[in-house]
Design a protein that fits this description.
single chain, about 140 residues, alpha/beta, Rossmann fold, five-stranded parallel sheet, about 20% strand
Length: about 140
């Protein structure tokens, strides 16, 4: 059973291998990937995989219906500037070019998904900084 504080993402489009890859990357960030629109009641994030621009307006409309407030991130083939521009004009919050390094995907996700309270106190070095005024004798 998932904690209610776990952010949830839904993938629209794509195949099983993309789903598996995204599930691994999202899990590293404390985000659960839901397997179907029915299971993802108001996901915190919707990822839309597009191969051609013709389906993009319909996919973005569906993404907005499923997650009225959450960000929509479009996964485009390579660095297709035409699709990126179209996606952003149609309301996508951000885009990720498939084939780019996964660190870039992590950066995009972290920029648009709220940080979990349990992760908010971890500094880049991995330790919690001392509170102001505390002493270490």
């Amino acid at each position: 059973m998932k904690s209610s504080s776990t952010a949830r993402a839904l993938l629209l489009g794509g195949d099983a291998s993309l789903g598996s890859l995204l599930e691994d990357v999202l899990a590293e960030l404390g985000i659960a990937l839901e397997s179907s629109a029915a299971a993802a009641d108001r996901p915190d994030l919707v990822l839309v995989h597009v191969e051609r621009g013709e389906s993009l307006p319909c996919q973005l409309k569906l993404a907005r219906e499923l997650s009225a407030q959450g960000p929509v991130i479009v996964l485009v083939p390579f660095a297709d500037e035409r699709l990126v521009g179209l996606a952003l004009r149609l309301g996508a919050r951000d885009c990720f070019a498939m084939g780019s390094p996964l660190d870039e995907l992590r950066r995009v996700l972290m920029a648009h998904v709220p940080v979990q309270p349990s992760l908010a106190f971890i500094s880049p070095g991995g330790a919690v900084p001392p509170s102001p005024g505390s002493t270490h004798d």
